[in-house]
Amino acid sequence: MSSLKLLLLVLFPTFTATQQLPSDPGVAGPPLEIVHLYNDQWPTGITVSQDGRKFSNYPPGLDANNTNDGSNGKYTVAELIGSDSETPYPNAEINSPPGGAINYTTYPPTGANHQTHLIGVQSVVLDPLDRLWILDTGRALTPDGVLVPASYGGPKLVCVSLSTNSVVRTIVFPPTVAYPDSYLNDVRFDLRGGGGVAYITDSSSEGRNGIIVVDLGSGESWRHLDGTPEVRPERGFVAFVWGTPLYYIPSPGQPLTTAPLGADGIALSADGQHLFWGSVGGRTLYSIPTERLRDRSQNSELLAQASIVNRGQRGVSDGFETDSNGFIYAGNLEQSAISFYNPKNASTSMFVRDPRINWSDTLSVGSDGYLYFTNNQLSLGSAFFPGTDRRQRPFVLFRAKLPENGSRVSLLDGL
Ligand SMILES: *[C@@H]1O[C@H](CO)[C@@H](O)[C@H](O)[C@H]1NC(C)=O
Ligand SMILES: *[C@@H]1O[C@H](CO)[C@@H](O)[C@H](O)[C@H]1NC(C)=O
Ligand SMILES: *[C@@H]1O[C@H](CO)[C@@H](O)[C@H](O)[C@H]1NC(C)=O
Ligand SMILES: *[C@@H]1O[C@H](CO)[C@@H](O)[C@H](O)[C@H]1NC(C)=O
Ligand SMILES: *[C@@H]1O[C@H](CO)[C@@H](O)[C@H](O)[C@H]1NC(C)=O
């Protein structure tokens, strides 16, 4: 080596072109398949029927562009047609409340009170009998981005028969169960024993978090775990999605805060004995024996609080889902992934990871052995970045094959 070359190497050390540094592969688990592209309204929920029909919802409580004003044709529930179009479900009329989703005759404006029309739907879920349940928060954003409180008649569960495509049942929540500033987020069904039971998370960004229980036989509903730390967001919690820290603006003109989103994702264990949930503003997975939630006796709330189980860390997630292996799936948004918790070994593992995942919102196991999930870029919308909208259409419905022949669970008598 010449002395000049040696001098250069000492002054400017270089690495050989063949040197390989370890790097994040970004991908793990089964391949993602694209099922549907959403080019129009912004979706959250997805549910897939036994024969493969697919339904989504488009919450006006999270995107003002989803708010129906009585004449703009916006829908809050749709059936997916083909691979890239959607049609209002069960029909356009129910999706278009007379006068719109917001009642501007009150001051300040409030959610419209129509029991016969959809105001602001945050979730659509098929029950074990393949009936479509529509969870209406009764709330919507004004064009200025103000989330109006609900009025009695808005917050409700609406049941639609897939064979007749018509409403067969409406359960309206009293204001003592769905508060005006509640945000009914997601729902799961156990149809064993009598009429069955529904469990709902209240993710309210105003702090009214809790779990709502509905007796589907009588239509009665009640709350448990109201305001307990496990259903609340963690104070000061900051998620990092796609490398970006997520702060939050509660409404226009207000100062930044950390994500104030409480109990959101929800799933029943495969045997229906435990209900799992987690806050968006936190990484912990919690569960409670479902009998503690159904109990309405004098000591039932004390017993419920005393029976919450901390199942460890799951990551940051929105939707949850269950399969026949007993696995509890949950988004792992900071890892561009979906993880699952196995109750048999009390640990969380990676299911699928892909750089295209930039907010896995709602998960739904199909009878075909696939996990379907919407990817909707929620954290790039105006709630986290006020005055800006960094979302890029299309939003995507993906699916991935479940491990160990996993499939849909049906909590139904006689199975
Ligand atoms: C709202 O909808 C209009 C018309 O569909 C569209 O041009 C616009 O980009 C949408 N805005 C947002 C923020 O999604
Ligand atoms: C709007 O609010 C007024 C005053 O509370 C009420 O009388 C009316 O029924 C409401 N209409 C709708 C559609 O919510
Ligand atoms: C727990 O079980 C799952 C599913 O069988 C497995 O993939 C995972 O590695 C297990 N975790 C631990 C820590 O043993
Ligand atoms: C998020 O991922 C989807 C694919 O799933 C992609 O179409 C979209 O462009 C991504 N969003 C951004 C802001 O890059
Ligand atoms: C999955 O199903 C296939 C076909 O029925 C079977 O051969 C295989 O053993 C099953 N695998 C597991 C892990 O159960």
From TrEMBL:
GO terms under cellular component: extracellular region
Gene3D superfamilies reported for this sequence: TolB, C-terminal domain
Domain of life: Eukaryota
Keyword Signal assigned: yes
Residues spanning the signal sequence: 1-18
Predominant subcellular localization, coarse grouping: secreted
Subcellular location: Secreted
Keywords: Secreted, Signal
Family that this chain belongs to: Belongs to the major royal jelly protein family.
UniProt protein name: Major royal jelly protein
Lineage, opening ranks: Eukaryota, Fungi, Dikarya, Ascomycota, Pezizomycotina
